[in-house]
Design goal:
It is a single chain. By secondary structure, this protein is an alpha/beta fold. The chain has two domains: 18-134 and 310-323, Rossmann fold (3-Layer(aba) Sandwich), CATH 3.40.50; 138-308, Rossmann fold (3-Layer(aba) Sandwich). Helix content is 42%, strand content 13%. It has helices at residues 18-36, 59-70, 91-101, 112-122, 136-150, 167-179, 195-208, 218-222, 242-249, 256-260, 294-297, 304-323; strands spanning 48-53, 74-79, 104-108, 126-128, 157-161, 182-186, 211-215, 227-230, 268-271. It has a five-stranded parallel sheet with strand order 7-6-5-8-9. It has a four-stranded parallel sheet with strand order 2-1-3-4, with helices on both faces. α2 (59-70) links the parallel β1 (48-53) and β2 (74-79). α1 (18-36) crosses α5, α1 (18-36) crosses α12 (304-323) and α2 packs across α12 (304-323). Bound molecules: phosphoric acid mono(formamide)ester and norvaline (NVA). Norvaline is lined by residues 130, 166-168, 231-232, 235-236, 272.
Length: 324
């Protein structure tokens, strides 16, 4: 059956079928080639797009803005102090107002429930630009980068090192499940994804042939991996946990020893960014490297800036697929 995503929201990774994910990745590649050829687009001409951010963002915000303008849409940034969302007005009411004025709504924030409520009431497509639970547009950029590098996703073994219970741990595990890949979380048990999420991934994996593993030993986790992925040890909103996480996650830092422990010379390193590879987030305290060393971050294995660029091409594909 041909894929038709018009009018749909993108709220989680696991809502996507394999066919929808493939369609979005193919469309991303087409739109990327079009941009590289210098062709100005009009696929989103006349569309107004609301960008709601409760949390800060560099890549996601800029990707939405540039993607809109490339294809003729108007983006409107609405930060947490700009609108009443959930404070003086219910999320449902804000959703109904924005839905009368905008053609699509991006939301980044804390609760998954907020983006689900927006989608329920807005009457226009809503896209999750990151919640505590999920980061679906990031997964599209990650998979496009892997596809560009290896030519395929099937058979790829991706190991995610670090805080496996955060939005990236959940999303990579579920994304690999959908695409029939081999996912490993290399993390201490205390930071494994919630049981219900693991169960969901395994259920999807049963139908796609994916393999889902949770492994405590860092070297055993990365063995034979094609992709080593990591993320910050304390996500947005969890900064107070940083000291505790440093203790828990030090053995899971992605350094050259760990890259060598894959046993693969063509392994690639990915990170959703921002990354703490040589300084603290607020630049005031120098902790040194955290989840990844400078040596790996700057090495030939690292594809993190290809990946960051791909945020824009994939987000553009999501808007085009659901609106155009
Ligand atoms: N990867 C990512 O979502 O980056 P931003 O927080 O800068 O949007
Ligand atoms: N887990 C990180 C991802 C940032 C893109 C966070 O939520 O802060």
């Amino acid at each position: 059956m041909p894929v038709n995503m018009r009018g749909k929201s993108l709220l989680t990774v696991e809502q996507l079928t394999k066919e929808e994910m493939e369609y979005l990745l193919d469309l991303s590649a087409t739109l990327k080639a079009k941009k590289k050829a210098g062709i100005k687009g009009n696929l989103l001409e006349g569309k107004n797009i609301a960008l709601l951010f409760e949390k800060p963002s560099t890549r996601t915000r800029c990707a939405f803005v540039v993607a809109c303008i490339d294809e003729g849409a108007h983006p409107e940034y609405l930060g947490k102090d700009d609108i009443q969302l959930g404070k003086k007005e219910t999320v449902a009411d804000t959703a109904r107002v924005l839905g009368r004025m905008f053609d699509g709504i991006e939301f980044r924030g804390f609760k998954q429930e907020t983006v689900e409520t927006l989608a329920k009431y807005a009457g226009v497509p809503v896209w999750n630009g990151l919640t505590d639970y999920s980061h679906p547009t990031q997964i599209l950029a990650d998979f496009l980068t892997i596809k560009e590098h290896f030519g395929h996703l099937k058979g790829i073994k991706l190991t995610y090192m670090g805080d496996a219970r955060n939005n990236m741990g959940n999303s990579l595990m579920l994304g690999c499940a959908v695409m029939g890949m081999h996912f490993v979380a290399g993390a201490p048990k205390a930071l494994w994804p919630e049981n219900s999420v693991v169960e969901k991934a395994k259920e999807i994996a049963n139908n796609t042939g994916a393999v889902i593993e949770l492994i405590e030993d860092p070297k055993a986790a990365v063995k034979d991996s094609d992709v080593i992925y990591t993320d910050v040890w304390a996500s947005m909103g969890e900064e107070s946990k940083l000291q505790e996480r440093i203790e828990q996650l030090k053995p899971y830092q992605v350094n050259m020893d760990l890259i060598r422990a894959t046993g693969k010379e063509d392994v690639i390193f990915l990170h959703c960014l921002p990354a703490i590879h040589n300084y603290d987030t607020d630049m005031s305290k120098n902790y040194g490297a955290m989840e990844v060393t400078d040596e790996v971050f700057e090495s030939k294995y690292s594809k993190v800036f290809d990946q960051a660029e791909n945020r824009m091409h994939t987000i553009k594909a999501v808007m085009v697929a659901t609106l155009a």
